[in-house]
Design brief:
Rossmann fold, 7 helices, disordered N terminus
């Protein structure tokens, strides 16, 4: 290990000892404990059928301090919504069993959840799809291929700060 790397590691461990937390170096899970308490209040439902994307986005959102529930298909998302009320739902359009658009329709038809923020995260980037999404009442529409996980996280933060005030 190079000298400058050991020095940074020592400073990090020293900083963490002052807070009386015993952290292992370079371990992302422990960053969650040091985050701002304000963002911990935000809850997200992430419905995506691609497991690798789910894990990537879930990890990024958790590192940013969000409470994340995941669903692998639209039916599972609807089942989770019966007991879990997120601040924002992030839905893929093309999912097995029930599509993201059908989940969005169901959310808007439910009087208790009709004002929930819904962001559609998909690879369908044509105009007819975007018109249909906004007509159904989605808060935001993002093409997955156009944004990095950091940009998606920042977009979700901006939406929550705008609408939850």
């Amino acid at each position: 290990m190079a000298f400058h790397t050991r020095k940074k590691l020592f400073r990090r461990l020293k900083y963490n000892r002052r807070r009386k937390l015993r952290l292992t170096p370079f371990c992302d899970e422990h960053k969650i404990k040091l985050l701002n308490v304000k963002t911990m209040a935000y809850k997200i439902l992430l419905a995506e059928d691609d497991i690798q994307l789910v894990e990537m986005y879930k990890r990024k959102f958790q590192l940013e301090g969000f409470d994340v529930q995941t669903a692998e298909d639209g039916q599972q998302a609807l089942d989770i919504l019966e007991t879990f009320t997120p601040d924002i739902a992030i839905l893929d359009i093309m999912m097995p069993k029930v599509t993201g658009l059908e989940v969005l329709k169901s959310i808007r038809e439910n009087p208790a959840k009709k004002d929930m923020l819904v962001m559609m995260l998909t690879n369908l980037g044509n105009e007819t799809t975007s018109e249909e999404i906004y007509k159904l009442g989605a808060t935001e529409y993002i093409v997955k291929a156009d944004m990095t996980p950091l940009e998606v996280t920042n977009k979700v933060k901006a939406i929550l700060e705008t609408y939850k005030k």
